[in-house]
Design goal:
By secondary structure, this protein is α+β, with helices and mostly antiparallel strands. It is about 30% helix and about 25% strand. It has a 7-stranded mixed beta sheet with strand order 12-13-15-14-16-18-17. Strands 1-2-5-11-7-8 form a 6-stranded antiparallel beta sheet, with no helix packed on it. β3 and β4 form a beta hairpin. The chain is globular, with a radius of gyration of 23 Å.
């Protein structure tokens, strides 16, 4: 009797392990592998610096300020350093500044061993932002130093490389989207290295089973706010109350992971997560917790519901608008989609010629993971750092509409 009971227990254990392994993403050997084991980071000290009546602070989520000093009577210097090195030149800064009395100052942004990248964005409320007039700042003293001419007052003014958009803002947007439609289910699928929630918006009508699926994600890299704005517009367009959107949601499922790297975002990192790693180089062995959480959730969700992943869109920012697509020697389950989609973008945005830049399988990035894991089409949707924000929103809306048109016709 004990013998048979042990056999039953062993069989149940084997079955459970087999079931568990069914929901694990596969590992891959890429031509250009990356070391994604944890690396030490330099955590910025959170504080308010005050010098002769002028104060600057990084005491909010999403801030980046490593030191603040006075150079002369009316010149102050904000020193900005990355979380660790080597690192992509995404010299992100964000802090607020104020003065006991209104005065004009020169504010230097200094990046030891790095270069200035972003046009400063200014705000009095961290909601409404203005890109700084190019006549009011320069980089004439050297690539590692930008000089801003500012009027500072007793009221705080935010000075940031990109509009402030932290994990709290992401939660607020996700809740708003979820509350706007019964077709959206918002959930926390796990936590980051430091315990911040990783959110997912699961979008579909009626039964999710057997529906072809699109994966959307953003903010693997913390400062890439213009890409995040495009993702928001894209998702909101999919949820519009229109015949096209309603028909699309009848037949397709969308899984949205709007902020994959909440630690890096809130810590004001230039590129990496709390483990000091570029999360868009960890799509082969999943050593970083955020990538573990997202990949396991995708694989488990689609396999449990018999969903075929057709397309993965990963929204990023860089110096210019560009679509990093797959090469024709890698036929996906919707092979040919991207060429028609890019043409649709061109037709829908008169005067705009979308830059399609295909390249073959190389390093372990999300684009190639969608292809290797599911046979789906992978696209990295890059938005220029300084692309006009109204155009960012408009282009993403057209992109979403063109995708829906093509996939509805496919169905």
């Amino acid at each position: 009797m004990i013998y048979f009971r042990n056999i039953i227990l062993f069989s149940a254990l084997v079955s459970a392990l087999a079931c568990k392994s069914t929901y694990k993403p596969k590992t891959y050997a890429f031509p250009d592998p990356k070391d994604t084991f944890d690396k030490e980071i330099n955590i910025q000290e959170k504080k308010t610096y005050s010098i002769n009546g002028v104060s600057a602070s990084n005491e909010f989520d999403g801030a980046r300020l490593n030191d603040f000093t006075q150079i002369n009577d009316n010149t102050y210097r904000a020193t900005i350093t990355p979380e660790n090195e080597p690192i992509n030149e995404s010299s992100y800064f964000c802090f607020d500044i104020w003065s006991e009395v209104e005065q004009n100052i020169t504010l230097e942004l200094h990046y030891p061993n790095h270069v200035h990248r972003y046009i400063p964005k200014l705000s009095s409320d961290a909601i409404n932002w203005t890109r700084m007039d190019s006549t009011l700042y320069d980089t004439l003293k050297g690539p590692d130093l930008a000089s801003l001419r500012l009027t500072i007052k007793p009221e705080k003014q935010y000075v940031c490389g990109q509009e402030l958009s932290n994990s709290t803002h992401n939660l607020e947007w996700s809740q708003k989207v979820s509350n706007s439609s019964s077709n959206v289910r918002l959930s926390t699928i796990g936590t980051s290295t430091l315990g911040r929630p990783i959110l997912c918006l699961d979008i579909y009508k009626n039964d999710p089973k057997n529906k072809p699926t699109i994966i959307i994600m953003s903010r693997l890299h913390p400062p890439e706010v213009s890409g995040y704005m495009a993702m928001q517009s894209y998702v909101e367009t999919l949820l519009e109350d229109s015949p096209l959107s309603n028909g699309f949601l009848e037949n397709y499922r969308i899984l949205v992971y709007p902020m994959v790297n909440p630690d890096g975002v809130d810590m004001g990192h230039w590129r990496h997560n709390a483990g000091g790693i570029d999360l868009n180089r960890d799509w082969s062995h999943y050593r970083q917790k955020e990538i573990q959480v997202v990949t396991h959730h995708i694989v488990k969700t689609v396999k449990q519901n018999n969903n075929e992943v057709l397309l993965g869109l990963d929204f990023h920012s860089t110096q210019e608008d560009v679509l990093y697509t797959m090469t024709d020697n890698r036929p996906s389950s919707i092979h040919g989609f991207k060429d028609i989609w890019v043409q649709g973008l061109k037709d829908g945005l008169p005067g705009h010629d979308p830059f399609d830049d295909p390249y073959d399988l190389n390093s372990p990035i999300s684009k190639w993971w969608f292809y290797l894991e599911f046979g789906g089409e992978g696209i990295t949707y890059e938005v220029g750092d300084e692309t006009d924000r109204d155009f960012v929103i408009k282009k993403a809306r057209v992109a979403a509409i063109e995708m829906m048109k093509l996939l509805v016709l496919r169905k």
